[in-house]
Amino acid sequence: xxxxxxxxxxxxxxxxxxxxxxxxxxxxxxxxxxxxxxxxxxxxxxxxxxxxxxxxxxxxxxxxxxxxxxxxxxxxxxxxxxxxxxxxxxxxxxxxxxxxxxxxxxxxxxxxxxxxxxxxxxxxxxxxxxxxxxxxxxxxxxxxxxxxxxxxxxxxxxxxxxxxxxxxxxxxxxxxxxxxxxxxxxxxxxxxxxxxxxxxxxxxxxxxxxxxxxxxxxxxxxxxxxxxxxxxxxxxxxxxxxxxxxxxxxxxxxxxxxxxxxxxxxxxxxxxxxxxxxxxxxxxxxxxxxxxxxxxxxxxxxxxxxxxxxxxxxxxxxxxxxxxxxxxxxxxxxxxxxxxxxxxxxxxxxxxxxxxxxxxxxxxxxxxxxxxxxxxxxxxxxxxxxxxxxxxxxx
Amino acid sequence: xxxxxxxxxxxxxxxxxxxxxxxxxxxxxxxxxxxxxxxxxxxxxxxxxxxxxxxxxxxxxxxxxxxxxxxxxxxxxxxxxxxxxxxxxxxxxxxxxxxxxxxxxxxxxxxxxxxxxxxxxxxxxxxxxxxxxxxxxxxxxxxxxxxxxxxxxxxxxxxxxxxxxxxxxxxxxxxxxxxxxxxxxxxxxxxxxxxxxxxxxxxxxxxxxxxxxxxxxxxxxxxxxxxxxxxxxxxxxxxxxxxxxxxxxxxxxxxxxxxxxxxxxxxxxxxxxxxxxxxxxx
Lengths: 395, 282
Hints:
A: Elongation Factor Tu (Ef-tu), domain 3; 22 strands; 27% helix; globular; B: eight-stranded parallel beta barrel
């Protein structure tokens, strides 16, 4: 059995490196044009080259999103853009508008074409249509059950990719223009203002919302492997390094433990807790095991949680001194945990903390400043390891 | 140029007044106010001289395919001008079953450029219902550059989104109440109302404002647009509007009184003269 792919988002080069180091098998990125996150940082051509080079050196892949719904004015230069991206080393394009498929497959047969979830493909017969067009993979609609996904996989030949984690659209992807009407920002060209998270008013000043809880499929990774899903996709090209390191690292461990036959309830509890800690919304499995209902949505009076667990990003570890960029306040006496891209987690109480000039400090309170921690450990702690809070001494 | 009507009741289909009608198919049409069973469609096609289009625009599931296959075979025996489709399964089934009935590419917010229109034309699709979020200039460019026969929705309460979720039921359930009816909610920033209408397929969301495109009909006519659509839902004195519009088209859109008479119809010209943006960062 071919091992399932863990596919991570990456909003910039640093995120790409982190997610690949933390265990993603492939990443999806947006270029400077034609992608559905027009207001993210996105990758220029040089960065795409570097991204591909970095990924390929690790034996991993880079997918480029090309999934806007084109207007007449957008089409000029798209072939040249595709040519350049292929030269830069892109392994696959994620497309929504079908006129592009034939151009890519005719000119670059080694490059894969994946049909975006923007098409909300939800049945095997539609996939058969796209198979005739040469599509290599379909990212399914997020509105499908396990039974429906399995039936699709049993009946089609191309790879099937599903979302497993992250924010959800209330409406079918591609079938929502609320952003256009409310904010004049084109949802299907990368300008979505997430109007489905706005609060509306239902007469008498009563609030009406339709926002969804996030998706978390951690407990069903084994099911997805068994029914033959090819790729597990995490949402969030605009998410933080810490979030991506935690989520991708955790799913890497879940997948590897599943294949090794070592995934038990105790481990799952730890994994789920890690995922829950970085979530800023409640989560659900939505349609996977039941028809989605009112428990999968938010209504009035909800506020999103801002997580302050992330304390620092490791720069190096030498002579028992852990050098890091500070991200959130902590102090001597706090119980913290370091976790590495290799999946090593170890906790310790902060005993000695220094600023960049090696002055002894009681607290780290300046985000982005460099600090040092004294750590008594023989464990390798490479760059891009993360430090997070376990328990504050003054709790 | 022909005028197609999507009626909002079964009492008056406007088949005697307009060039054609659009009938949403029961269980397979969304973003519509009413729907028609196959038996009703058979009866209507038998008794109508106008063009009849069928709307099958839900996101299909595996379990729909067998039933839909049978329905498409039945529809193919009728005198149907075209089938509006959203899901590519419909196109695949047309090819597999070698159906003669023409199709209308109707992927609501995605029909926005001439190259994709031509892509579908080259794959056997005769018509395209253009997106409602593009400008008149973009519409004209598509009509002029694509080989597909373009259809433009000109007067309607526009559908703006569709969810598989039961958003009205869920809302009331959270409040501990049962659903009494569909709901209209206000978006506070724009002070615009949106209507949520739920059925077994999910929830259709409509802007509670009438798009009045009567002012663009002449330009569409002059550019050889073949079809325009009026949707009855939410529009008063609709029969008079249909009759006047048919006369206006027959006059080669030269009668200025028509435009003047309907200048106050509805609240908006939607995106006909307003371009959307998508980059907000400097």
